[in-house]
Amino acid sequence: MTANFAFSQRLPEKLAKQFEDTGLFYFKYHHKGLNAKPDILNYAPDRMSLGLSCISEEEYLKEERPYLDPKLFSNTKIASVKDIKSVMRRGLRISDRPSYSTNYEKRRWVDGKKLSFEICYNQSTRENIPIFASGTYTFTVFSKDGVYRMSIADFTDCRERNADYDALTEYFYFKEGMKRDMSRGIEGTRGYYFINDDAADLFYQKLIEKDSSLPESALRFQEAAECIETILKNYR
């Protein structure tokens, strides 16, 4: 199966080709269902995983309505996509899921030439969950065909010590903690943590500036996020 074939069923072919032509990503298309395995397309070890899913507006509302923040919506049970987009435009998190409130997040809205989308940067600031390396970006894209979700993450292993992150003492400290062992269901607490909330914000600022003091993997991660934004913004 080629990338163009998989994308053509879920994204406009022209948009799909723009992602493919960058040579930066391999595509991991997520299907609904607990046991559904994702399609892996155009894999190469030097490419970054771009997670993809697509649902209709009706499916999107069915998923999101139960978790909408009642402080932001007059009636969460009948909230429309237009209502959700209105909240997103303000840079606010639409959900009141408690698990998300303990993470560091930065959200912003982009109106492109044809597509509108929210960009969310997310990073762990929880007491017993290590950082997600440089973090994750999620793009929630609204089109006439449905709602697309795209995500990328920096998969640098930050559950073991490495020289790049040991050097970033102004942001992180390492906690020995319990090692991760998913074969026994142990998530583990061993890894790097922010020294405080201010450090998380400072790291994000350095990341978006692509500061040369950050690890090369972090800079590649940020460049990939900017590439996705540019493609989505300029698509027509």
Helix count from the secondary structure assignment: 7
The count of β-strands is: 9
Round the Cα radius of gyration to an integer and report it: 18 Å
Order of helices and strands: HHEEEHHEEEEHEEHH
Task: Decide which structural class fits the backbone.
Answer: alpha+beta
Intertermini distance: 26 Å
**Binned strand content:** 15-25%
Fraction of residues in helices?
A: 25-40%
| Low-pLDDT segments | 1-9
Largest sheet, spatial ordering of strands: 2-1-3-7-6-5-4
- Average pLDDT for all residues: 88
Main sheet summary: 7 strands, mixed
Could you say which overall geometry the principal axes of the C-alpha atoms support? Answer: globular
Describe the structure.
The protein has helices at 3-8, 13-22, 57-64, 81-89, 163-166, 197-208, 216-234; strands spanning 25-29, 39-41, 48-55, 103-111, 116-124, 136-143, 146-153, 172-175, 191-194. The chain is α+β, with helices and mostly antiparallel strands. A 7-stranded mixed beta sheet has the order 2-1-3-7-6-5-4. Strands 8-9 form a two-stranded antiparallel ribbon. Residues 1-9 have low confidence and may be disordered.
Can I get a quick summary?
With 236 residues, this protein is an alpha+beta fold. It is built from seven helices and nine strands; from the N terminus they run H-H-E-E-E-H-H-E-E-E-E-H-E-E-H-H. The strands form two sheets. Strands 2-1-3-7-6-5-4 form a seven-stranded mixed β-sheet. A two-stranded antiparallel ribbon has the order 8-9.
